[in-house]
Amino acid sequence: MTAYDPCAHCEEVMQQFMDRVLTDAERAEAEAHLDECAYCRKRYRFEETVRQYVRQAVAAEPMPVELKTKLAALRTPLQ
Amino acid sequence: MSETTREPDARQIATEARDRVRFEEEALALSDQVYRVARHLVGSREEAEDLVQETYARAFRSWRSFQPGTNLRAWLLRILTNLNIDRGRRQQRRPDEQPLEEGDYFLYNKLEAAGDGETDEDRVVERLSQNDVVAALSEVPHDFRDVVVLVDIGDFTYADAAQILDIPIGTVMSRLHRGRRILKQAMAEQAVGT
Q: Which of A77, B16, B90, B92 is packed most tightly, with the most Cβ within 10 A?
């Protein structure tokens, strides 16, 4: 038997917390823990930054212009 | 008799042509977003370009099967993932090759250990270039990456991702959570080595 570790639990629900899929009660429990735990608070904030950075890094490569032209050419010709 | 049937036919043809043009324009307006997702579902830019072209060719041919009012972007991505599977590009992975992932705090803790005990959010940006992030994402096994790409980059809901990939929503959630952890692990390797 292991004792209940609130930080481990907080880590466990972090993704659901950020995806806003926790129940109200679960969310309130996580928020209460975050209010008093700087360790988890820092890691939650870090996760937010990572998610934004990944999205931004991955979106940086634009679609090639030629591809756009090729796609438009696939349209059904007007009669 | 022929007089009475010909007129609605002509009107029908005109309506159909108008619907088709509208469909094609709406689909083309989404091409940047479709490409961005495709680019990270497959291995290379060339493959992504081919796949997007095939997707649009098929979508334009079968536009009648799209139900107006439903999510066109999800419909296009569904075609794209099916084509990707049909092409046999998806390698079958044996269960024992599934990586063991660390916890959600792994990347943070790694960066903290690599620094002087000081870690703030900006560290990740300093340590990882955009190319590093793209490389880390490409290391995430397909099943997990598909879901991460659709939800976190494509902004699809869990339900849309489930429909696109034809898997249960519970599977989307578990793959998403594991996939993000695997991604952070790969980012940690890029940032500080193993």
A: B90
Question: What was the ipTM of the complex prediction?
Answer: 0.85
- Reported as a single tens digit per residue, the pLDDT across B78-110 is 999 999 888 765 554 444 456 667 888 888 888
CATH class of the B97-192 domain in this structure: mainly alpha
Give the CATH architecture of domain B2-86. Orthogonal Bundle (1.10)
Query: A11: which chain B residues are within 8 Å (Cβ-Cβ)?
Result: 103-105
Q: Determine the pLDDT at residue B120.
A: 64
- The segment(s) of chain B belonging to CATH 1.10.1740.10 are 2-86
DSSP alpha helix (H) spans, chain B? 2-29, 31-41, 45-61, 72-86, 106-114, 122-127, 130-139, 142-148, 158-165, 169-192
Residue in B closest to A42 by C-alpha: B120
Looking at chain B, which residues constitute the CATH 1.10.10.10 domain(s)?
A: 97-192
pTM: 0.85
